[in-house]
Amino acid sequence: MSSQNSYKNMVIQIRNGQNSRKPEIYTNSSNLSLNILKVLKEQGYIRGYQFLGQKTKILLKYTAQRPAITKLEIVYKKNISLKNLKKISAYKGLGTFILSTPKGILSNYDCIKNNTSGFLLLKLL
Fold first, then answer.
1. Looking at CB atoms within 10 Å, which of 35, 58, 117, 122 has the fewest?
2. What average pLDDT values come out for the chain (125 residues) when binned by 10 residues?
3. pTM
4. 3-state DSSP call for residue 66?
């Protein structure tokens, strides 16, 4: 399975796991999915994750019985400029974006700190 399909499957499994109120899920591992999980953890959307070889255990997060991720949307490699990223990030309530950049997989906030742009992979609320 390609890393692109692996991260898309991971997103679907996170959505399904949260809809079923599961405390944890297991998904196939890839470098891309692990880097995305790192950003999700840093931004407070999951409790954590553990790499188990071919599988990864993801600890889902809930606040007051509600999933920490209310919306998780796959974006099909839309390039976004730093200028637009700054505009979008200035508005509260628009969520977090995860991008593939020359400096790695980063949140929109880290992209601004690192003065880089890239391809939009995920939108989260």
1. 35
2. 74 95 94 96 96 94 92 85 84 82 94 93 89
3. 0.89
4. strand
Residue-range domain boundaries for the chain: 3-67, 72-124
Q: 113: which 2 tokens?
A: 């700190």
**Strand pairing class (46-52; 24-28):** unpaired
24-52 pLDDT, tens digit each:
999 998 999 999 999 999 999 999 999 99
CATH of domain 72-124: 3.30.1490.10
Beta strand segments in the chain, E? 24-28, 46-52, 55-60, 62-63, 66-67, 72-80, 96-101, 104-107, 118-124
How far apart, in whole angstroms, are the C-alpha atoms of residue 17 and residue 107? 23
**What per-residue confidence (pLDDT) applies to 4?**
63
Instruction: Give me the residue label for tokens 């999951």.
Output: 46
Does domain 3-67 sit in CATH 3.30.1370.30? yes
